[in-house]
Specification:
The protein has about 180 residues and is an all-alpha fold. Helices cover about 70% and strands about 0% of the residues. The chain contains 8 helices and no strands. The longest helix is centred in the N-terminal third of the chain and has 31 residues.
């Protein structure tokens, strides 16, 4: 066994639970993400993100426009790429294709969220906490639902974990650098 293959094996051994959590998350979340049913508020999020990219950040109506978070632009990255590749593209499917691609993009952000959570647990605790923690999060019905639909709650979870990490840094090392 060469030194390179040994390091790959050690890398796999160290992070296998993260990869298992990602695999199980995808198996459980993908069928929900590709379903054809359009939830009432998901199109509002996508429409707001597209309006925001066009320079219009105002809400259309307070009573039925469920959008107000600029972070939703991250969910419409496939539409942005499609528009850059084919300028002037107009779709006639009432947003169904955008919703489908945005849901798949949310799955990507769900995987990123698992990586961030695993990193957070390893950094602040240890591997004995990180492995079951990331498995529990990856199998959580709430996590699966939030990251297989287009909504802002998913991004709020990632932001919460990052803020919690900074807070723990401030508590451990009373340094102004960790606040900024």
């Amino acid at each position: 066994m060469t030194n390179l293959s040994l390091s790959k094996y050690q890398l796999w051994k160290k992070h296998r639970w993260l990869l298992v959590a990602v695999f199980l998350f995808l198996i459980l979340a993908y069928p929900n993400a590709v379903k054809e049913k359009i939830e009432p508020d998901q199109s509002d999020y996508i429409n707001y993100a597209l309006r925001l990219l066009q320079g219009n950040s105002t809400r259309l109506a307070d009573y039925n426009d469920a959008s107000c978070m600029p972070v939703m632009v991250l969910a419409v990255i496939p539409r942005i790429a499609e528009q850059l590749i084919k300028p002037g593209l107009e779709k006639k499917d009432w947003g169904a294709a955008d919703l489908n691609s945005s849901r798949k993009m949310m799955l990507f952000w769900g995987i990123i969220g698992l990586f961030i959570f695993y990193w957070f647990l390893q950094k602040n605790f240890d591997e004995k906490i990180a492995a079951p923690g990331v498995l529990m999060l990856g199998l959580s019905p709430t996590y699966i639902t939030r990251f297989s639909q287009v909504n802002t709650d998913a991004f709020a979870l990632i932001a919460f974990v990052l803020v919690l990490h900074c807070f723990l840094l401030v508590l451990k090392k009373n340094n102004l650098k960790n606040i900024i």
